[in-house]
């Protein structure tokens, strides 16, 4: 499945599967998602029954895009200065097929 084919329903299905796995280990699942619409789908859709099955707490970060971009740029610069490029070089496999993502 291509990333572009991954729908809100797919995200919800995967989320519920992983939430159940994490809860079985007596840990607290944390869902981090870049799109409020996907979280709303997970919580509000009667198929997933999320809000009836799970106790939950939501934290929304609402920030202007320019401020967010500036913060991300600064964080990436810090990561590069701290050795990110060398770290990635250690795990990079030149002939690997990276079109399917990393699992």
UniProtKB/TrEMBL annotation:
Alphabetical list of InterPro entries matching this protein: Dimethylallyltransferase (IPR039657), P-loop_NTPase (IPR027417)
Statement: the UniProt record of this protein carries the keyword Membrane: no
Any single Gene Ontology cellular-component annotation: mitochondrion
GO biological process, one term: cytokinin biosynthetic process
Family matches, as Pfam families: IPPT (PF01715)
UniProt entry keywords in alphabetical sequence: ATP-binding, Cytokinin biosynthesis, Nucleotide-binding, Transferase
Record-level Gene Ontology MF annotations: ATP binding; tRNA dimethylallyltransferase activity
Protein family according to the UniProt entry: Belongs to the IPP transferase family.
Protein name in the entry: Phosphoribulokinase/uridine kinase domain-containing protein
